[in-house]
Design goal:
Strand content: 5-15%
Organism: Streptomyces venezuelae (strain ATCC 10712 / CBS 650.69 / DSM 40230 / JCM 4526 / NBRC 13096 / PD 04745)
Subunit structure: Monomer.
Pfam family, one: MmgE_PrpD_C
Number of domains: 2
CATH class of the largest domain: Mainly Alpha
EC number: 4.2.1.79
CATH topology of the largest domain: 2-methylcitrate dehydratase PrpD
Helix content: 40-55%
CATH architecture of the largest domain: Orthogonal Bundle
Radius of gyration: 22 Å
CATH superfamily of the largest domain: 2-methylcitrate dehydratase PrpD
Protein name: 2-methylcitrate dehydratase
Largest sheet: 4 strands, mixed
Length: 506
């Protein structure tokens, strides 16, 4: 691996493009066109994430934001086009709109993969736009595999090296760069074209984190789909010879200077050497529970404390000692009263670790639908317990969150439960059970079980088997077979739900 120093340069420097971060990211993408870069272990993990994405996408088909995105996309048919979850076989849409619909479906439940380092990310958000472009452009499963591997490599490198959230910039800015690079790798585009596409994508998808603050709306699900759609459009323009704001990262009026640390900004982004295998996907991890990733270990911690805590009406207070991020983004340190509001949206409750801990402690588990139901959030006993839960930042947990060694990095916390009689119950958990360093790391069997659970009653067992066989053969699939990566569902039921929605422009 090579450490690249990235800093702001005045326009008078005329920074050579070969020294610009966007160019170096493009080189990572175009360098994946060699067969040795397709690491066997990384390729297997790509298959796992395709299964994971399909699981959560199918489970969200009759949720309003997903239906809205699908309805918008249906207004843009195309040939050859790309498939969309929930539509009849043979229905094909313009690839950027298919990516919009599928990206929203994948993101809606906040239940797919994650990577946390200097910033936050859901690298699986790269898969819908790459799959859509692969179908539309006649690529094979092997091409798609190469593109996804490259997208993860770029995404993880940016998340490790450049913090966005400290400046309240949404993490999709890193996603769009990765998606543009992944598409370039998949299509075997030249470095110049990928470089221009990456810069356009970053420029057009820089937004604030208000989408994850206060009254969190359905835009949280739309945001990565928008980034994927924008990345596809950026690649299209770049392929036609159009340029971009340059240098997008290092320019004196660019991303680092005005969105992030300012004119004195300096970052280190670590990228693979030429010919080095792309294995960054192996650093990422998925979710066992449908909640913000920092809540994964907290849910498992609550499950373990349920019996010891005893009658929960005897609880005086619960304090969760955790990292800066957990405390300030999904904890009481955010200052958001909505995180204690029983009438809050699902998206807001998903970002309230006090609520999540209360429900997991009461129920001894977590469910992607029941745990967010209005009647569940408004249960008087739950509300009473919820109001007794606060978070505090513990410097030790913050250090563990940012530990450069993945084996020591931790995203959990310590729970201190004080009962009315003064008894104190304490326990801690560093990582979720499903984390690679956890008690029950996810493997292919875990991804398969998650798929069968989330698609139960929506996809028949025979069609579940068919999808899983196709996913496992990703590298062998031709263009037509890529449609088999969309599980067969009852499209009449989906259409009936879609028909209940108000109409828009498309």
């Amino acid at each position: 691996m090579i450490d690249h120093q990235v800093r702001v340069h005045p326009s008078a420097d005329r920074l050579p493009r070969e020294e610009q971060l966007a160019w170096k990211l493009a080189v990572v993408a175009t360098g994946t066109q060699e067969a040795p870069d397709l690491d066997a272990e990384a390729s297997e993990m790509v298959i796992n994430r395709i299964i994971d994405n399909a699981s959560v996408a199918v489970a969200s088909l009759r949720r309003r934001p997903v239906a809205v995105a699908r309805a918008q996309a249906v207004g843009h048919p195309a040939a050859p086009g790309a498939s969309a979850f929930g539509l009849p076989a043979g229905t094909t849409l313009s690839p950027e709109w298919a990516a919009w619909a599928n990206g929203t479906a994948v993101r809606e439940l906040d239940f797919h993969d994650t990577y946390l380092a200097a910033d936050y990310s859901h690298p699986g958000d790269n898969i819908p736009p790459l799959l859509a472009v692969a179908q539309h452009t006649g690529r094979s499963g092997a091409d798609l595999l190469r593109g996804i591997t490259a997208a993860y490599e770029i995404h993880v490198a940016l998340v490790k090296g450049i913090c966005l959230h400290a400046h309240r910039i949404d993490h999709v800015a890193h996603l769009s760069a990765a998606t543009a690079g992944g598409i370039g790798a998949m299509l075997r585009l030249d470095t110049e074209t990928v470089y221009q596409a990456i810069q356009q994508a970053v420029h057009t998808t820089t937004a604030t984190r208000q989408s994850r603050k206060g009254e969190i709306s359905s835009w949280k699900a739309f945001a990565p789909a928008f980034a994927g759609k924008a990345a596809i459009e950026a690649v299209d323009r770049a392929m036609r010879g159009e340029g971009s704001p340059s240098p997008i990262y290092e320019g004196e009026d660019g991303f680092l200077a005005w969105m992030l640390d300012g004119p004195e900004a300096s970052y280190t982004v670590t990228l693979p050497e030429p010919g080095e295998a792309r294995r960054a996907i192996l650093d990422t991890y998925t979710k066992e529970h449908s909640a913000e990733y920092q809540a994964q270990a907290i849910i498992d911690l609550a499950r373990g404390l349920r019996e010891e805590a005893g009658p929960l009406d005897k609880v005086r207070s619960i304090v969760l000692h955790t990292s800066h991020h957990t405390h300030h983004v999904i904890g009481s340190g955010s200052g958001d009263p909505q995180k204690y509001d029983p009438t809050a949206s699902r998206e807001t409750l998903d970002h309230s670790v006090p609520y999540i801990f209360a429900v997991a402690l009461e129920d001894g588990g977590w469910h992607h639908e029941r745990s967010y139901a209005p009647e569940r959030a408004q249960c008087p006993a739950t509300v009473a317990l919820w109001q007794k839960i606060t978070t505090v930042e513990d410097p030790a947990w913050t250090r563990r969150y940012h530990d450069p060694d993945p084996a020591r990095r931790a995203f959990g916390g310590r729970a201190v439960i004080t009962l009315d009689g003064g008894t104190v119950i304490e326990d801690e958990l560093a990582v979720a059970d499903a984390h690679p360093a956890g008690a029950r790391p996810f493997d292919r069997a875990g991804y398969t079980a998650k798929f069968r659970t989330l698609t139960d009653g929506i996809v028949t067992p025979a069609d579940q088997d068919s999808f899983l066989r196709s996913a496992a053969r990703l590298a062998e699939l031709d263009t037509d077979a890529l449609a088999s990566l969309f599980p067969v569902v009852d499209t009449d039921a989906v259409a009936a739900y879609d028909a209940t929605l108000p109409k828009g422009l498309f």
